[in-house]
Amino acid sequence: QVQLVESGGGLVQAGGSLRLSCAASGSIFSINLSRWYRQAPGKQRELVASITSGGSTNYTDSVKGRFTISRDNAKNTVYLQMNNLKPEDTAVYYCYAAEWRGSKWSNYWGRGTQVTVSS
Q: 39 and 110 in contact (C-beta within 8 Å)?
């Protein structure tokens, strides 16, 4: 069993920065894919950024050039550095991880951390 816990959210003014962390614990085999999602009130959950075990990254257009996803395998932690934050970035941010184990994919979700950007 793997658990994901997000941290680092908070209240920040437009133009400011935050760094989110997602720490994994439990019986971890090997995380093949890590992602950050976000969901604003009344809106669908949106994929923000992804990183593979090989280090390949992808971002949704609205955060390109502002957000950076990274991982530290030794610490079992994935990060999302968010710079030049905008009010539109306000949402609950969730981390996600997938691993291949026992001939099947296992998927894990964190419970989320609130990011609020004031104008």
A: no
pLDDT of residue 15: 98
Name the token pair of 82: 């968010």
Residue 90 tokens read as 């306000």
Residues 6+ apart with CB under 8 A from 93: 6, 9, 20, 36, 37, 38, 48, 80, 112, 113, 114, 115
| Residue 53 zone, left/alpha/beta (φ > 0; ψ -120 to 50; rest) | alpha
Share of the chain above pLDDT 90, in %: 87
Pick from 105, 98, 108, 60: nearest CA to 80: 60
Question: Above 90 in pLDDT, residue 35?
Answer: yes
* pLDDT for 16: 98
Q: Is 73 exposed, middle or buried (0-12, 13-18, 19+ CB in 10 A)?
A: exposed
Q: Which residues pair with 107 in a beta bridge?
A: 98
